[in-house]
Every structure is written in structure tokens, then in C-alpha cells.
Amino acid sequence: MAPVRLKIACAGLGRMGKRHALHLLKRVPRAELVAVASPNEEELRWAQQHLEPWGVALYKSYEQMLKHEGLQAVIIASITTVHAEQAIKAIQAEKHVLCEKPLSTSVKTSQTVVDAAKQKPDLKVMCGFSRRFDDSYRDAWRKVQAGKIGRPSIFRSQTCDKLDSTGFFVKFAEQSGGIFVDCAIHDIDLALWFFGKDSRIKAVVGSGIAAVHRDLCKLGDRDNAIGIIEFHEDRIAYLYCSRMMAAGQEDATEIIGPKGKVTVNMHPQINLVNIYEPSGIRREIPQTYYDRYETAFVTEADEFTAACLDDLKLPMDLSEAVKAVEIACALQESLVTGRKIRFDETGRRIDKATL
User: Fold this and answer.
1) Which end of the chain has fewer beta carbons closer than 10 Å to its terminal beta carbon, N or C?
2) How confident is the model at residue 311 (pLDDT cuts 50, 70, 90)?
């Protein structure tokens, strides 16, 4: 008897959508990619070449894709502005959902996804924070949980992309929510993971510059930013995000406690090869975020599939994704206004939002 496979579809076939689709098609044994949807003709032409020959159905309409016979789950990799809407439609159609981060650039809209998921407790609904599925970060988390460094008190983390001279992300900034929501949200999620999901935000402050692409300022964004998150539990997180690294993708994290510290990827390298030249010894580093976390994305799809088929608990609570958006939005607001934003011990803002 053939093993049961999860019939899953992918919404959106941009950079990440294509990767998700190919993972499901070729690298997730218990998943069966049955359909994809995109309103973009160029993306559909790509799918005609790379997916349709393997029996994958192509749809221009997301709503029509949800009606695909036997469909059980959806990965949402569309533009950020429709993540929440598409997630809710899938939940209402009784489909399991894996949604790319963030759920939305709005805290209120993100919460609507959580509320919809609560109405369907039998469904698995997850927001994809890829670093939680990375072997190195998981090992670091286990060591911190085992007490290797004592009580984790200081968290430093960065997400630094290679400089894209085309300025692609300048256009993307109009719908991304800004550098903290799009870029640093991974580091925010890690801080909540390592400090514990019950950590209470005390204050945030963000600052940044447009070192390369000045047009970002008109959109309330920057290409380099620093954020500080204070927690009521006497913990602090320091974040750096950048879109102008010269060498490649430079993501690194440091968790510090009274008995020691744990670091992840402080000296990035794409593999174990060293190049010996007259000028010295060097190693190459990942050029993109996907280069660094490719395996984590596959693991994420694998574990989501297993959770759906075997009714397993998901590795993170959906409400944590809303909390990450809340912090990211507050940091983005602080960056634009120059104000420190404070929260009381119940998590309520002490001052009124200005963006």
C-alpha cells in the first residue's frame, strides 16, 4: 500500500514561492504538490515549464485553487499584503496553512489570522520562521535550555543581506512594512524563542540610515537599522539589519548569560572549503538568505507536512508571530519618529501609536 501523502498547493510563485514549490515537488517525500496559483503571467509560464509536466495544476485564481479536488493544505508565499487574507480564506476552506512571514505588516490584521485559526482547532496553521528549523539554531536553543550559559540575559542578532545594486527592495519597501518588519523580524522571533514566548516587552527604540538608497527615506524606511528591545524580565535584545553587505549574506546571533554564551554563524562560510592564494587564505560565504537557510526551508516543509498528516503539535504557537509583528512595527515607528516606545507589564502601549 502506497504511503499517504499530503495534497498541498502553493500560492505565489515569486522568489520564495518557486523554492517552496520545488521543495514540495522533489524534496518533501510525504507531500504531493497538486496545484499552484499566481496572478502573474510570467510566474505561470515558469510553472508551465517546471511544474505542469509533473501533473501540477496551474491556477490564475487563488480562490479557484482552493477548490482543487482533494486539496488538504496550502503554503502561502504571495506578496506580504495578501498573506492574511489568503490564510483566512484557506482556513475557512478547511485547509491547513503554512504562511510565509510575516502574517501581515499590521498587528491587527495579523491577529485576524490567529482568530480565524482558533475557530478551526483541527487545522494546522503556522507562520514560517525559517531559522527555527535550522540545525545550528536548534542546537544553540537546546544548549541554552539545558542551562549551559545560565539565564540568557543579552541577545544580539543580525540579518544582513548582500547589496543589491538594482534597488529591487526599494520598490518592495512600499508593501514590505519596512526593514524591521521584513528583515529583522527573524531576529525578533529568535529573541522571543530564546528568551521564552512569555517575555514581556518593556520598550523599543529603533534608528537607521539610508546609506545607499536614499529613496527609502520617502517610504519611511532605511537600508541599515539598529533596534533595541527591553523586556520587563531584565533582558535586552540588540538587533542590526542591513541591505548593503559587500561579501554576501551575514546573519549571526549571540546569546549571553552569566555562565557563558552561545553564538551562531559569527564567522559565516558556505561550506568547509578554504582557498589558499598568494594573498592569503579565504573562504566563501552564502550570497543570499536562501543560500544560508535552504535546508531549514526543507525541514520546515517536512515538519509541517508531518504535523498535518500525523496530527502532531506545531513547533511554534501562531500567537508568537503576532508578537513578532508587534515588536517589528514598534521598532519601525521608532525609527521614523525618533521616539522610544514603551509598554506596561500587561503588554499595552503606554503611548498612542503615531503611524
Assistant:
1) N
2) very high
State the cell numbers at 29.
517525500
Question: Is pTM beyond 0.90 here?
Answer: yes
Instruction: Report pLDDT digits (tens) over 168-217.
Output: 777 777 778 899 999 999 999 999 999 999 999 999 999 999 999 888 98
Contact 181, 334 (CB under 8 A): no
323 Rama class: left (phi>0) / alpha (psi -120 to 50) / beta:
alpha
Instruction: Please tell me the predicted confidence (pLDDT) of residue 355.
Output: 60
DSSP 8-state symbol, 343: B
The values of phi and psi at residue 169, to 5°, are -75, -10
Beta bridge partners of 96: 73
DSSP sequence for 106-133: SHHHHHHHHHHHHT-TTS-EEEE-GGGG
Per DSSP, helices labelled H in 27-150 are: 41-50, 62-66, 83-92, 107-118, 135-145
CB-CB neighbours of 248 under 10 Å: 18
Residues 247-295 have pLDDT tens digits of: 999 999 999 999 999 999 999 999 999 999 999 999 999 999 999 999 9
Residue in the structure block whose three cell numbers are 550570497: 287
Burial of 138 (0-12, 13-18, 19+ CB in 10 A): middle
**CA neighbor of 77 nearest in space, from 281, 345, 304:** 304
E strand or H helix at 325, and its extent?
Answer: helix 318-337
Of 239, 128, 253, the C-alpha closest to 188 is 239
pLDDT value at residue 168? 76
The radius of gyration computed from the CA coordinates of the chain, to the nearest angstrom, equals 20
Task: Let me know how long the chain is.
Answer: 355
Angle at CA 99, nearest 5°, toward 95 and 103? 120
Burial code of 93-109, b = ≥16 C-beta within 10 A, e = fewer? Answer: bebbbbbbbbbbbbbeb
Is-contact 238 159, C-beta < 8 A?
no
